[in-house]
Specification:
The termini are far apart. The longest helix is centred in the C-terminal third of the chain and has 26 residues. This protein is globular. The relative contact order is 0.13. The model has no long low-confidence stretch (mean pLDDT 88). The protein is mostly helical. The protein has a two-stranded antiparallel sheet with strand order 1-2. A hairpin with a 6-residue loop joins β1 and β2. α3 packs antiparallel against α4. Helix content is 41%, strand content 10%.
């Protein structure tokens, strides 16, 4: 583990700190990495970096409001969860389409269905990982 890793919100150094963002420094020397502890990931609705949608540029991502708080807390228990990426690859564009004014009504309806399906898949992923039954 890197020596001076701290939660970007509360400064905690103990517990499981998870990368939530990696932003290139711009000068080619590396990346600026941000970490968060479990309570801050829950409170801030932060998506772990390894679960960011594939098209992400490395900044912070937040679980959309359609993901219930109790599910955000269960997802935070997963820590670095790369198995969530295929779900977030569907969730984030669908959430954007549901809010877009330029998307046709029928396409917005399909996007809404895709959002609900992705939330169900998030719940199933959390259940499988934690050993709980749906």
């Amino acid at each position: 583990m890197i020596a001076d890793v701290r939660c970007m919100y509360c400064g905690a150094t103990a517990g499981e700190l998870v990368t939530v963002a990696e932003i290139p420094t711009g000068d080619g020397t590396g990346r600026w990495t941000s970490y968060a502890c479990r309570p801050c990931r829950i409170g801030g609705r932060l998506v772990p970096f390894l679960a960011h949608p594939s098209g992400s540029r490395g900044g912070l991502h937040y679980w959309p409001a359609v993901v219930p708080y109790e599910l955000v807390a269960r997802l935070a228990d997963l820590g670095d969860a790369p198995q969530l990426r295929p779900i977030t690859d569907r969730l984030f564009p669908a959430v954007a389409a549901t809010a877009s004014r330029v998307v046709a009504g029928r396409d917005r309806g399909a996007a809404t269905a895709a959002v609900h399906a992705a939330v169900i898949d998030l719940r199933a992923a959390a259940d499988m990982t934690t050993g709980e039954l749906p």
